[in-house]
Amino acid sequence: MDELLKAIALANLEQKVLLLPQFLEYEKKGIEFLIGCLCDRELAIREKAYQLLKDIKDEKAQKATALGLLLNPGDKIYSVYEAGIWFTDESYLLFDGVDYLIEIYIQVYGDRNFDEGDEMCQSKRKYCYINKTKAEQKAETIHRNSLAKHSIGDICGFYWERKNPDLDLKSWCLENNLLSNQEWNDLPSHQREWRIEKLIGEYQDKTLIDRYKRSKYIYHLDFVDEWLRENQVNYNYDYEDWDNLFKLLEYLELPENIELLSKFWKDGVGDFAFVREEIVQQESYVTIEEKLSHYLLKDRANNKLIAKPENYAEQAINYLIEILENCHSKPKHKLKAYQLLYDFDTDAAKQFIAKGIEGISVESMFELGEEIDLNSIRLSWDGNPS
């Protein structure tokens, strides 16, 4: 085994991973070496050693891998999430994203006490991978398996439509000689959109309505023929046939069209499963490539995998700054947000910490009814905080 040890000492990371299986040829000594690799600095080494040891019928190997694979802070992983699903009186809704700021929200505004709807809407991390390609393959498998369970349609199905996130309503109205009320600019976006759509409907101009819909949506069933052309689908979609949507879906559901069907759902509805690249925040043990619920045993209930995107600090700081700059934020929420900025060691956070909190009076602090570290807050003010 000495020659193998010399070889691995001189090898690069990729070569080391390829050499590790050879240590099994040396039985107990090789197993002991691999057990030592479970704590290696490099995640790729730890993961390979774990895969080699976890199924070996050796007492030491089984004990060493019983907790799962060790993940250290800073390790990069690829998490597979199942999208959250909720429903209205008319349709289902798919939430294919991850809200990494929930914990910040709770710390600022208090416990949210999720109801059933909140829980169902949250995407859930189901699998953890070291290899991005394997994670994407798993997500695609989950997505395709979910297609058979759901439908597209007007009632009790998903709407097939994808909004255009870049649509500027004000610019669109100007380009189409459609005057909008100046007061609408102060309304929430969904109310402003509703007012403008009502105005467009009053014109009873089919060409204008169609132009607006094509600007509002990237994809929509009313002009699905564009998607068919983009994806070179040889199918003649007839708008006059009420049952044509179901005939189209039957065509896409043919075994040879599974890739098209998968893309049809992703483009018009969303992903039932998706991958997020994340950075591990604290030491954890996981069972790679198996459902994460499998490793959450009773005696390890506190072993929660905490992993966030690489730009999480930027997201969190921007969110906290929004609270501080919002003139409608309550004093206690501004104070909480200000305190949380201390958790982030970045220039942006330090700049806002140095600025202090605007619009907070001494009287408002005493009205909070909570323990606040006033000494640390006073340090940021010049003179009288009021």
Structural class: alpha+beta
The domain tally reads: 4
Order of strands, main sheet, comes to 5-2-9-11
Q: How would a crystallographer describe the biggest sheet?
A: 4 strands, antiparallel
Number of helices: 19
Overall geometric form: flat
Strand content: 5-15%
Helix content: 40-55%
The mean pLDDT is 83
- Contiguous runs where pLDDT drops below 50 for at least 5 residues: 294-302, 362-372, 377-386
Order of helices and strands: HHHHHEEEEHHEHEEHHHEHHHEEEHHHHH
Number of strands: 11
User: How much is the radius of gyration in Å?
Assistant: 28 Å
Give the CA-CA distance, first to last residue. Answer: 73 Å
As an assembly, this protein is single chain
Any overview of this molecule?
The termini are far apart. The protein folds into 4 domains: 2-66, no CATH class; 69-159 and 269-310, no CATH class; 161-242, no CATH class; 312-378, no CATH class. Helix 2 packs parallel to helix 4 (43-53), helix 3 crosses helix 4 (43-53) and helix 6 crosses helix 16 (331-341). It has a 4-stranded antiparallel β-sheet, with helices on one face. It has helices spanning 2-10, 13-19, 27-37, 43-53, 59-65, 102-109, 116-121, 132-147, 169-175, 189-203, 206-216, 224-230, 244-252, 258-268, 312-325, 331-341, 347-355, 362-366, 374-378, and strands at residues 69-71, 76-82, 84-87, 91-95, 124-129, 157-158, 161-163, 217-220, 273-280, 284-286, 307-308. The protein is built from 19 helices and 11 strands. It is an alpha+beta fold and 386 residues long. A hairpin with a 3-residue loop joins strand 3 (84-87) and strand 4 (91-95). Mean pLDDT is 83; it is low at 294-302, 362-372 and 377-386.
